[in-house]
Design a protein that fits this description.
The chain is mainly alpha-helical and 213 residues long. It has 10 helices and 5 strands; from the N terminus they run H-H-E-E-E-E-E-H-H-H-H-H-H-H-H.
Length: 213
């Protein structure tokens, strides 16, 4: 079911404002931020038909085709600066190719290991959040950072994964960033939504946001 026309207009206005906020905070990410395709996925109460919040989409999850899935209620209730931060966070997963780098990608021998999945998602989040911190952007509460995890700064997701595994840690995941973070298909991934072609995705990964300084 699609959102009401007026509601959809308001959602799209807020997403546009979030993109503008993100571009102003991290100008080197402008091309990637503007390239992300947003797919609004409304949820309704079965009995009343009233729009309800789909908490599965709270983190603005994306798929590897650069499609981000948006719950309209969450978009309307979330401050624009947080929406912009989450858009930058998803761009971080996408430009780093976390879906391709993930040990959970289809066919991986260890793909059925739940602790591995949680460690990888936390490690990938920490890598992205370190980059955003370099731009002076603090994450929302609960987001993993190297400091909060007691890990060294500026490492890759693979390095953070190895350190978490070495210590036998199984940290809680802050939110589901979708298949863009780990390559594992989600129920909301929708191939009927036209994503970016492979050549464009590769070009965006090469261009990627740059660390400040």
């Amino acid at each position: 079911m699609r959102p009401d026309p007026v509601e959809l207009d308001e959602v799209m206005d807020r997403l546009a404002a979030a993109r503008l906020w993100a571009v102003r905070r991290v100008p080197s990410a402008a091309t990637a931020v503007l390239a992300v395709i947003t797919s609004v996925r409304p949820a309704r109460d079965v009995g009343s038909g009233i729009a309800i919040r789909d908490r599965r989409l709270a983190a603005f999850p994306a798929d590897p085709r650069w499609v981000a899935y948006v719950d309209p209620v969450t978009a309307l209730l979330t401050p624009v600066d947080e929406l912009g931060w989450r858009l930058l966070h998803q761009v971080g997963h996408l430009v780093r190719g976390h879906a391709r780098r993930s040990p959970l990608r289809p066919g991986a021998a260890t793909g059925a290991d739940p602790p591995l999945g949680r460690r990888w998602r936390v490690a990938a989040d920490a890598e992205v959040n370190e980059e955003l911190a370099g731009h002076g952007l603090r994450p929302p509460p609960g987001q993993p950072t190297a400091a909060a995890l007691g890990l060294p700064p500026g490492r890759t997701a693979q390095e953070y994964l190895a350190l978490l595994a070495r210590d036998g840690r199984d940290p809680a995941v802050a939110g589901d960033c979708g298949s863009a973070a780990d390559g594992v298909r989600r129920p909301w991934d929708d191939t009927s939504v036209a994503g970016l072609d492979a050549l464009t995705r590769a070009a965006l990964r090469r261009a990627g946001p740059r660390r400040p300084g």
